[in-house]
Amino acid sequence: MTQAAVTSRSSSALLTLTGILFVALNLRPALTSVSPVLKRIGETLALGSFGQGVLTTLPVLFLGLCAPLAPQLARRIGVDRAVLVATAVLGAVLVLRPYSGTVGLFAGTLIAGGCIGVMGVLLPGVVKRDFPSSASVLTGLYTAVLCLGASAAAGTTEPMRLAFGGDWQAALAIWTIPAWVAVVFWWLQLDGKHIPRRPTKPARSLFRDPLAWQVTLYMGLQSSLSYSVFGWLPTILQDRGMPAVDAGIGLSVSIMIQIGSAIAAPWISSRMRDQRAMIALAVLLTGAGLMGCVYAPIGGIWFWVVILGAGQGGTFSMALTLLAVRARDHETAARLSGMAQGVGYTVAAFGPLGLGLLHGIFHDWQVAGVFLAVIACAVLGFGLAAGRPLYVGEAR
């Protein structure tokens, strides 16, 4: 291969990686930008606890419901074009939903969740296809960028609302900007690229495989805790006496801490016999952080926020790791990813909804904390089962 060809291939790979990272940056801000201003939205649109719970649940539910559409869309127009379309629709929805009234806000939020569901299912396949020898490292990298986007939205939306004179609509709409930046970079990396239009159709379903269900339920239940935190942690902290800006920063700090543990957990577990010890550590830290945020004295809340972030970064990155290590080949991994994210995120939707319902019924967070503890115990159980050194689709 000539030097010019090597240089061209390196430039193309760098552009593709840049596109992947910008798309990853947009996989959470549509969700985490809502919770810091949730109280203001509720006051403006007369949404009670139930309405606010539904608003935080819709995007997670449609993450799961739309995940199975991703392979179908990819077969029709190609994986890369499907990512481009989903990112462009997300950008349009983010600028429209705050200014479309109550119905538009709810409709825009569910569409945003659907777009993210499609993007999230397809992006790991692009990484494995274009960077097969570095897939695990780059998965950790784009997971870290995903956490960075989530943290930025959680920490800056409320300050931006104040900067815009109390306008929560403008503070939400501004998150369309990174989406359109991602569209531009993804479009650039498509130029002149040979794109397979019809991926191989999956051979058979994994829905009768017990290990696949263990991975799926671990993915779904840990996501349920994550989206409960995304949707309700600022409200919980505000109800416990923190100012709105500090509560949003609390969520932001927690997510920022996830960046380190999201990279470290898969790297450390790769040097172990299996993933059970790392999963157990991550889940225990998550549970401790949640209980601290709900029950511990408010003076020590920043310690518990950090513990929560360290745990949740590990639980999420280990869920993505299981999608790869529990499959012998990338076709099986793709099928497992579709099942785990499709069913898992649908299960996850009931976390923030249940939290909102319990708060509405009991008017405090004590019972809701027990609800979170029960979910954490279930995450631990399914995680220990999924972390065994076995492979899906094989007789045992």
TrEMBL record:
<dbReference type="InterPro" id="IPR052524">
    <property type="entry name" value="MFS_Cyanate_Porter"/>
</dbReference>
<feature type="transmembrane region" description="Helical">
    <location>
        <begin position="105"/>
        <end position="123"/>
    </location>
</feature>
<feature type="transmembrane region" description="Helical">
    <location>
        <begin position="343"/>
        <end position="362"/>
    </location>
</feature>
<dbReference type="InterPro" id="IPR036259">
    <property type="entry name" value="MFS_trans_sf"/>
</dbReference>
<keyword id="KW-0812">Transmembrane</keyword>
<dbReference type="InterPro" id="IPR011701">
    <property type="entry name" value="MFS"/>
</dbReference>
<dbReference type="Pfam" id="PF07690">
    <property type="entry name" value="MFS_1"/>
</dbReference>
<feature type="transmembrane region" description="Helical">
    <location>
        <begin position="211"/>
        <end position="233"/>
    </location>
</feature>
<feature type="transmembrane region" description="Helical">
    <location>
        <begin position="277"/>
        <end position="298"/>
    </location>
</feature>
<keyword id="KW-1133">Transmembrane helix</keyword>
<feature type="transmembrane region" description="Helical">
    <location>
        <begin position="368"/>
        <end position="387"/>
    </location>
</feature>
<feature type="transmembrane region" description="Helical">
    <location>
        <begin position="168"/>
        <end position="190"/>
    </location>
</feature>
<feature type="transmembrane region" description="Helical">
    <location>
        <begin position="245"/>
        <end position="265"/>
    </location>
</feature>
<keyword id="KW-0472">Membrane</keyword>
<feature type="transmembrane region" description="Helical">
    <location>
        <begin position="135"/>
        <end position="156"/>
    </location>
</feature>
<feature type="transmembrane region" description="Helical">
    <location>
        <begin position="50"/>
        <end position="70"/>
    </location>
</feature>
<feature type="transmembrane region" description="Helical">
    <location>
        <begin position="304"/>
        <end position="323"/>
    </location>
</feature>
<feature type="transmembrane region" description="Helical">
    <location>
        <begin position="82"/>
        <end position="99"/>
    </location>
</feature>
<protein>
    <submittedName>
        <fullName>MFS transporter</fullName>
    </submittedName>
</protein>
